[in-house]
Amino acid sequence: MIKIRGHRTGLSMLFLTTILMGTGFSSSLHAGESNSLKNLSPEKVADFIHAIVEADRQVYTTHIVKRMQEQGVVMAREDWENKNAIPLPAQFLHISSKLVAESGHGIRFRLISLWPIYRRNGPATDFERKALEQLSLNSDTPKRGIVSTGKKRLFQAIYADKAINDTCTTCHNSHPLSPKRDFRKGDLMGAIVITIPLED
Amino acid sequence: MDNPEPTPAKRKKGLTKKLVLSMLLVGALPLIIGLLLAFYQGTQEIREVNGSSFEALATETARKLDLVMADEIARTALLTTDIQIIEKLEHTRDALSELTTQELALTLKQEQEAWNTKDADILQRILKGPFAEVLQKHVGGTFIDPGHPIPVITRSATRGLYITDHAGRVVASLDSDIPYLHREEAWWKGAFHNGVGQPYIGQIAFDSPRGVYTFTLALPIMDSLRYEAIGVLHRIYDAKEFFAPSIDIIRFGKTGHVMLIDSRGVVLSCPILPTGTTISDTSLIPLVTPLHAGWTPAPSDGHGGTAASIIGFAPLSNTNPITQISTGQTWHMFVWQSSGEVFAPIEHFFKWTAAFGLLGVILLVTLGYIAANRISAPIRRLQEAAQQIGRGEYREPLTLSTGDEIEELADEVNRMNQQLASQFAGLESQVELKTQEVKYLEESTIKILDNVPDPVLMIGPDEHIEYLNKASKEAFAVTNGEIIGTPLFQIFSLDPATQNRLKQEMHAVQVLEPPYSDNTNTKPSNTSLQDPLVPTNWAQSSANRQEIRINQRTFRYRWFGVQARPGRGPSAGLVLRDTTEESILQDRVIQGEKLASLGVLSAGIGHELNNPLVGVIGLGEAIQEETNPEQIKEYARGIVQHGKRMASVVRDFTGQSGKNLTEGQTLINLNELLEQSLTTVKDLFPSVPVDIQTHLGPIPSIQGKALELGQVFTNIITNAFQAMQQGGKLDISTETSGHDLEIRIKDTGPGIAATHLPRVFDPFFTTRGQGEGSGLGLTVAYRIINKLGGHIRMESEEKQGTTCLITLPVSNAHLAKERSTVS
Predict the structure, then answer these.
(1) Domains and their CATH numbers in chain B
(2) Are strands B690-696 and B728-737 parallel, antiparallel or unpaired?
(3) Given CB atoms, is B543 within the 8 Å cutoff of chain A?
(4) pTM of the model
(5) Which residue in A98, A104, A125 is closest to B225 by CB distance?
(6) H or E stretch covering B183
(7) pLDDT of B17 over the 80 cut
């Protein structure tokens, strides 16, 4: 159960409303707001967010980056800021993740991997590491759990992140800092971690 | 034609000069242009090469610094993952979250005061606690990560290292020379980033307590889940010491080096400029701080020099996103070398090529001069030959063996020389002949003129004497040598008025002359040119006769124009004739004629008066002897009649009628008067068988004296009757013709001889015998008609008869009418 914290209630409501509207749940929310909120589990919220994040990245990857590159308009590359290029899909996710974090709603999402190009994108906790290992065996079921930092408790849901097209595998297989260079399309490359704060 | 022709010497130099100049133009100009182009191209290429090198160096150095910075961030970030620190900060965060705002503020204030007062407990906790120990180990190089040993440089450049917690309090530090609370510091806010956490690199600034320029690196310390920031690790570096080992060692040439500046133009590190200063020419900043690598020609070097230079630049691509998000500034590498050094090779090249070029030009001029002389020398010889031929001097054939067109030209000149020589021979003989002819003509002309008895002079346009013949010299008592060239009026001593007249006449003649022309088709006007020696009837042209008196002698003169010689003004000729003797003779002749006329007149008068006088004397004698009174009376009447006749003769002769023009004038019907006169004369010649016809038209009356006009008509009709003694036909007619009345009296007599016709109106001229006519009849008639404004004319042909035509003006008739109306 989610209990929205004190002064952030209004903003959190707005964020959730935006997400739910985007996923077609607005009518049920409006129909019975209080009951729906009580029944809205963090698992579901995490699923919603994951669906949106995945969709957004898919749209960016397929309909923007791929088309742009095919038509020779602009390339997507890691040092995009200095080279008149656009961000890689993974960077797109990082940037949107940072913007969501800066918005102050407490919800975070990020990419992690057992074979990260940059060490900061490795698993931060044992929970994350185990989740990655399990997902490599069964990627269909996300791993969920409640974690804590000090006294602060948070809900985490970890979703498998697969190589959806050749661009992903090519980049990771050729990057000089990449520890694994034999990715193929469809392989599990890592996971998306969605963290939602819980209040007692 | 007006241009002065260049002298041969000038021409000679001109050809050589032109040839040398042409060679210079053909040889040196491309050389100079080539040199300039090479210099330009060389400069461009050196610029390109240097620029590209500088850009590459800047890019490489920027990449290196990026790696240094990335490495430094990564090493420092190790501290932020220390699990002990994270747990401690999580704990601190949780503890703070349980405090109210007031409690928190009070706690912070107390702790800050304790820190400021160097409270031993708090100093102990922060400077000597377990975390401080971690920091010291890290800086000391004994950190736990063996794969990432801390470089000595980094350690020595560190001027401060401390950890702050969720509230911005210092939790651990290497030293105590820092404030306690940092929540409001830009670096803290930047790195904490509202709990999101992000790296922060501060801009370079002067750190007063440490006395150096420093920059800050602040990294967030995330909780164990990397969910949110729970503290900030803060590290202060001495900028110069940190960057110098990477930058200052890069030197090339004497002045080439790299430097690190930020986007404000502030120097972070430079081997020449001190850290913290701004580059001297701020206009360079936008040129060298774009977010891409490149090179640019710059108006100055940024180090105080104003010479144009080349600058390579490159941003720190990996570091700049952090500095950009932290402070809005970016960092850039700047590679520079002094322009003198950059362009030294091309200047060196240019000096040498210029020296070689100059040598080339000197050689070109020298060889060109020799070559030009080789060409111009035979041309000069040809020119001299042509000049000699031109002067008509035959010369020896020219021998030139150049084996080219000049030699052919020399052959042509030789041929021309031979042809001209042969033609000149014929021409010379012709010229000689013509000269002789001209000489002959001149001499003969002078001889002719000298034999002319009249003085002939030629006067130039300036009124100076050009020629005078022998007669002139004699007439004016001068010699040829004295007079030629002297002004005309120096020998003609004349009054100014006459001089002016002569000058005008002379100039008129001169102007009339057409200018001399070579065109022989232009014939001089016949009217203006005449032979001055053609005998002239001086007497007949007495109306235009012009005379001057010189030295008490009278001369008649005439001007004539003379064609001007080429290049000279027109001359005038003057022919004079000494008429002094002639004038005297003529005066005598006139005097003699006058006396002769007087004799004829006296004889005539005597004759006319003699007959009546004889009658008077005879009648007087008869009276003396006569006793019969009646007979005496008869004789006395005869005397009276003879006396009247003599009085009439005297009156006619003296011409009394001229004294009173209008006195006694009446209106006269001419037709009536004619008939009266005809009747009178018919009675005088009753036996003469004359067929008389009159055609008297309607004519107006005129004003005049009936007696006088009657005498006119009577005299004329009497003459006609006398002419027709053997019979004939007399025709008298009157008519109006225009403004005149015409009276025509025509007889069929023997006519008047042509030699007599001009003299019929002369007094006492008669063809009849002595006593038959006075010779005054027509004279009187002429005078009367003339007095009335009319004319009388005799027309006659021998054996054909004579017609007397009298015209009187009708205005006289009108006048008469008006007068009669007024009266």
Answers:
(1) 1-77+252-340 (3.30.450.20), 81-247 (3.30.450.20), 452-513+545-578 (3.30.450.20), 580-654 (1.10.287.130), 658-822 (3.30.565.10)
(2) parallel
(3) no
(4) 0.54
(5) A125
(6) none
(7) yes
